[in-house]
Design a protein that fits this description.
alpha/beta; 6 helices
Length: 143
Amino acid sequence: MKLFLDSSVVLAACGSAKGSSRAIFHLAPQTGWNLISSPYALSEVALNLKKLRGAATADWAHLRQQLQIVNDIVSLDRPVVFPASKDRPILFTALAWSDALLTLDRRDFSMLLGRQFYGLRVLLPFDFLREERAAGRLKLLRP
Protein backbone atom coordinates (compact mmCIF):
# COMPACT_ATOMS: atom_id res chain seq x y z
CA MET A 1 0.00 0.00 0.00
CA LYS A 2 1.26 3.46 -0.92
CA LEU A 3 0.87 6.06 1.84
CA PHE A 4 1.43 9.73 1.17
CA LEU A 5 2.64 11.47 4.33
CA ASP A 6 1.74 15.11 4.76
CA SER A 7 4.38 17.30 6.40
CA SER A 8 2.34 17.27 9.62
CA VAL A 9 2.78 13.50 9.93
CA VAL A 10 6.50 13.67 9.17
CA LEU A 11 7.00 16.46 11.70
CA ALA A 12 5.04 14.56 14.36
CA ALA A 13 7.19 11.49 13.74
CA CYS A 14 10.34 13.61 14.08
CA GLY A 15 9.03 15.31 17.20
CA SER A 16 8.16 12.20 19.17
CA ALA A 17 9.34 8.62 19.27
CA LYS A 18 5.84 7.65 20.40
CA GLY A 19 2.53 8.07 18.67
CA SER A 20 0.86 6.95 15.50
CA SER A 21 2.99 9.05 13.14
CA ARG A 22 6.20 7.39 14.31
CA ALA A 23 4.41 4.02 14.31
CA ILE A 24 3.75 4.43 10.58
CA PHE A 25 7.50 4.68 9.97
CA HIS A 26 8.26 1.85 12.39
CA LEU A 27 5.72 -0.55 10.88
CA ALA A 28 6.29 0.25 7.19
CA PRO A 29 9.14 -2.22 6.61
CA GLN A 30 7.17 -5.15 8.08
CA THR A 31 3.86 -4.31 6.43
CA GLY A 32 5.14 -3.44 2.98
CA TRP A 33 3.80 0.10 3.13
CA ASN A 34 5.53 2.42 0.71
CA LEU A 35 5.91 5.82 2.41
CA ILE A 36 5.70 8.68 -0.06
CA SER A 37 6.12 12.42 0.16
CA SER A 38 6.94 15.28 -2.20
CA PRO A 39 9.26 18.26 -2.47
CA TYR A 40 6.38 20.57 -1.53
CA ALA A 41 5.66 18.63 1.67
CA LEU A 42 9.34 18.32 2.51
CA SER A 43 9.84 22.07 2.15
CA GLU A 44 7.26 22.47 4.93
CA VAL A 45 9.17 19.93 7.02
CA ALA A 46 12.42 21.86 6.55
CA LEU A 47 10.72 25.12 7.46
CA ASN A 48 9.20 23.77 10.67
CA LEU A 49 11.78 21.23 11.86
CA LYS A 50 13.72 23.87 13.78
CA LYS A 51 10.66 24.44 15.99
CA LEU A 52 10.94 20.91 17.39
CA ARG A 53 13.18 19.44 20.08
CA GLY A 54 16.90 19.08 19.36
CA ALA A 55 16.83 15.37 18.53
CA ALA A 56 14.18 15.96 15.85
CA THR A 57 16.83 16.85 13.26
CA ALA A 58 18.68 13.58 13.88
CA ASP A 59 15.40 11.67 13.79
CA TRP A 60 14.54 13.39 10.50
CA ALA A 61 17.83 12.28 8.95
CA HIS A 62 16.96 8.69 9.83
CA LEU A 63 13.25 8.82 8.90
CA ARG A 64 13.92 10.61 5.61
CA GLN A 65 15.62 7.46 4.30
CA GLN A 66 12.28 5.63 4.39
CA LEU A 67 10.50 8.13 2.16
CA GLN A 68 10.12 7.85 -1.58
CA ILE A 69 9.99 11.36 -3.01
CA VAL A 70 7.61 11.85 -5.95
CA ASN A 71 6.98 14.83 -8.20
CA ASP A 72 4.47 17.41 -7.05
CA ILE A 73 1.16 17.61 -8.90
CA VAL A 74 -0.37 21.08 -8.92
CA SER A 75 -3.45 20.65 -11.12
CA LEU A 76 -6.01 17.99 -11.97
CA ASP A 77 -8.08 17.12 -14.98
CA ARG A 78 -11.14 16.70 -12.72
CA PRO A 79 -13.43 19.16 -10.97
CA VAL A 80 -12.22 20.06 -7.48
CA VAL A 81 -13.84 22.01 -4.69
CA PHE A 82 -11.15 22.30 -2.05
CA PRO A 83 -10.72 25.70 -0.41
CA ALA A 84 -7.24 25.28 1.12
CA SER A 85 -5.16 26.39 -1.86
CA LYS A 86 -1.82 25.92 -0.06
CA ASP A 87 -2.68 22.25 0.50
CA ARG A 88 -3.94 21.50 -3.00
CA PRO A 89 -0.51 20.23 -4.09
CA ILE A 90 -0.54 17.80 -1.14
CA LEU A 91 -3.98 16.48 -2.05
CA PHE A 92 -3.31 16.31 -5.79
CA THR A 93 0.09 14.68 -5.38
CA ALA A 94 -1.30 12.12 -2.95
CA LEU A 95 -4.09 11.33 -5.42
CA ALA A 96 -1.60 10.81 -8.25
CA TRP A 97 0.86 8.63 -6.37
CA SER A 98 -0.78 6.85 -3.44
CA ASP A 99 -3.68 4.88 -1.99
CA ALA A 100 -4.10 7.05 1.10
CA LEU A 101 -3.16 10.49 2.36
CA LEU A 102 -2.17 10.57 6.02
CA THR A 103 -2.36 13.98 7.64
CA LEU A 104 -2.72 15.60 11.05
CA ASP A 105 -3.96 18.84 9.48
CA ARG A 106 -7.51 18.85 10.84
CA ARG A 107 -8.07 22.44 9.84
CA ASP A 108 -7.32 22.32 6.12
CA PHE A 109 -8.40 18.71 5.53
CA SER A 110 -11.39 18.62 7.91
CA MET A 111 -13.96 18.14 5.15
CA LEU A 112 -12.01 15.16 3.76
CA LEU A 113 -10.85 13.34 6.90
CA GLY A 114 -12.30 9.86 7.06
CA ARG A 115 -13.58 10.20 3.51
CA GLN A 116 -12.32 9.70 0.00
CA PHE A 117 -11.28 12.13 -2.69
CA TYR A 118 -11.64 10.43 -6.09
CA GLY A 119 -10.86 7.12 -4.37
CA LEU A 120 -7.97 8.47 -2.27
CA ARG A 121 -8.53 7.77 1.41
CA VAL A 122 -7.74 10.76 3.66
CA LEU A 123 -7.03 9.72 7.23
CA LEU A 124 -5.35 10.63 10.48
CA PRO A 125 -2.46 8.23 11.14
CA PHE A 126 -4.22 6.82 14.20
CA ASP A 127 -7.37 6.10 12.21
CA PHE A 128 -5.35 4.42 9.47
CA LEU A 129 -3.64 2.16 12.03
CA ARG A 130 -6.96 1.38 13.68
CA GLU A 131 -8.46 0.39 10.30
CA GLU A 132 -5.47 -1.80 9.50
CA ARG A 133 -5.72 -3.51 12.88
CA ALA A 134 -9.49 -4.02 12.50
CA ALA A 135 -8.90 -5.59 9.08
CA GLY A 136 -6.44 -8.03 10.65
CA ARG A 137 -3.42 -6.64 8.83
CA LEU A 138 -1.82 -5.29 12.03
CA LYS A 139 -1.48 -7.52 15.02
CA LEU A 140 1.43 -5.68 16.63
CA LEU A 141 -0.51 -2.79 18.16
CA ARG A 142 -2.62 -3.05 21.26
CA PRO A 143 -6.24 -1.84 21.13
